[in-house]
UniProtKB/TrEMBL annotation:
The keyword Hydrolase applies. InterPro entries: Glyco_hydro_28 (IPR000743), Pectin_lyas_fold (IPR012334), Pectin_lyase_fold/virulence (IPR011050). It is found in: Secreted, Cell wall. It comes from Gossypium barbadense. This is Pectate lyase superfamily protein domain-containing protein. The active site is at H259. The chain crosses the membrane at residues 12-31.
């Protein structure tokens, strides 16, 4: 059954209504929910096609709740079409839970997005204690955007550089996203920004290998972020970590296809970046372009320090280990500069598997700002092509090697 709710207000109010109908089935918060008799009009929602749903949302979240928890339920076996919507906090409820068992789909093509915000689809802003879970699916139906992206079709008239990010969590403290499946976002699937304390757990993110800019998860200006037990395969980075990030932990992730896990690109606009304490542990890369990558723009300033890549397995990866401090849109087109983001104290420990290119370890640092304190320990990389050898390549990279390191380091 497809329930098409074209109005933001109606769709939101509908969730609330459904929540009410199902509240007695919800395992948790039964007491609080029983006392909630919710009617669409209770939320000031008017299905006239012009009312703003954020008002209804604000109304919901400003209502006091007995035990401080509110649950919004999306029932299984149903499909809801949602136009872009922003859930604006802060909310009075201590916790807001979305239990997504059904499917949520977006408008399908750029045409149907006309007049809508084309940069985002589902946005959660300043909602602290947000918990989204359930076995449901969030489908961005991005194909209508991919085939007119300027990156892939630069000569196409009316090509778009912008496309909606599926889920944006902005300033959502102590929140989490778990179990759901995210599919075919027109751009990044999950963006975590300006946030302290966020957990992504048991999530599956899928988009075709050829889809442009469909990062799995992008993190920027954030701290204490955990991504674990997840499967990510898209047309871009499985996870990318941007400027101003601290304490980012990625573990037990299966990555591929896609571009791998990337710290960067950093410092694009010549800004000062601070990236510290990043841990990537127990990740499998399959058929990705990169594995453990750090990439910075030459114009950038600031630092990346305290990075640990540990227990990574590569299956036919183009650049299993790569530092690219001369990152540039068009390879070779940017002149070498005096500036650069300093990369310091990076540990690569217990990494093994196969490289699909000859250079399995690339430590390509800036000639003016060297990489220091790189540690290679217990590394065993072979070619994925029988009979071929692999090697390391360094520019201005400094560090040490402990134990078996193959290919031999080039410090
Ligand atoms: C959803 O569909 C499945 C399979 O058809 C069925 O077993 C299940 O009872 C349905 N759930 C609801 C809530 O209708
Ligand atoms: C892109 O794909 C959609 C859906 O398959 C199709 O309707 C549209 O014509 C395509 N656009 C271009 C420019 O190829
Ligand atoms: C995702 O997009 C691809 C390419 O258009 C399509 O083949 C696939 O069926 C889509 N998946 C879902 C679940 O919609
Ligand atoms: C390393 O950086 C230099 C200078 O930008 C560039 O010419 C070269 O292609 C890079 N090598 C790799 C393997 O990325």
């Amino acid at each position: 059954m497809v329930v098409s709710l074209h109005l933001q207000v109606t769709s939101f109010a509908f969730f609330v209504l459904i929540l009410c109908l199902y509240c007695s089935n919800i395992v948790y918060n039964v007491v609080a929910m029983k006392s909630e008799v919710v009617d669409v009009s209770d939320f000031g929602a008017v299905g006239d096609g012009t009312a703003d749903s954020s008002k209804a949302w604000n109304f919901v979240c400003s209502r006091e709740i007995e035990n401080g928890v509110r649950v919004i339920f999306v029932p299984e076996n149903q499909t809801f079409l949602l136009h872009p919507v922003t859930f604006n906090g802060p909310c009075k409820a201590k916790e807001i839970k979305f239990l997504i068992m059904g499917r949520i789909i977006s408008p399908v093509s750029p045409k149907t997005w006309e007049g809508l915000d084309q940069a985002k689809w589902l946005t959660f802003y300043k909602v602290s204690g947000l918990k989204i879970k359930g076995s449901g699916e969030i489908n961005g139906r991005g194909w209508g955007w991919w085939n007119q992206s300027c990156r892939d079709h630069p000569r196409l008239e009316g090509c778009t550089s912008l496309a909606p990010t599926a889920m944006i969590f902005e300033s959502c403290k102590t929140s989490s996203l778990s179990q759901v499946r995210l599919i075919n976002s027109s751009q990044t699937h999950v963006l975590i920004r300006g946030t302290d304390g966020f957990i992504v757990d048991h999530v599956k993110i899928t988009a075709p290998e050829t889809s442009p800019n469909t990062d799995g998860i992008h993190i920027s200006s954030a701290s204490n972020i955990f991504i674990r037990n997840s499967i990510i395969g898209t047309g871009d980075d499985c996870v990318s970590i941007g400027d101003h990030t601290t304490n980012i932990h990625i573990s037990h992730v299966k990555c591929g296809p896609g571009h791998g896990i990337s710290i960067g690109s950093l410092g694009r606009s010549g800004n000062f970046v601070q990236v510290q304490n990043i841990r990537v542990n127990t990740v499998t890369f399959k058929g990705t372009t990169n594995g453990a990558r750090i990439k910075t723009w030459q114009v950038g300033k600031g630092y990346v320090r305290g990075v640990m890549f540990e227990n990574l397995f590569f299956n036919s990866v183009k650049n299993p280990i790569i530092i690219d401090q001369n990152y540039c849109n068009v390879r070779g087109a940017c002149k070498e500069l005096e500036t650069g983001v300093q990369i310091r104290d990076v540990v690569y420990r217990n990494l093994w598997g196969t490289s699909s290119t000859e250079v399995a370890i690339t430590l390509n640092c800036s000639r003016s700002v060297s990489c220091t304190g790189l540690l290679l320990q217990s590394i065993m990389l072979k070619s994925s092509i029988t009979g071929k050898n692999v090697r390391s390549s360094c520019i201005n990279a400094h560090g040490a090697a402990i134990g078996v390191v193959q290919p031999a380091p080039c410090f």
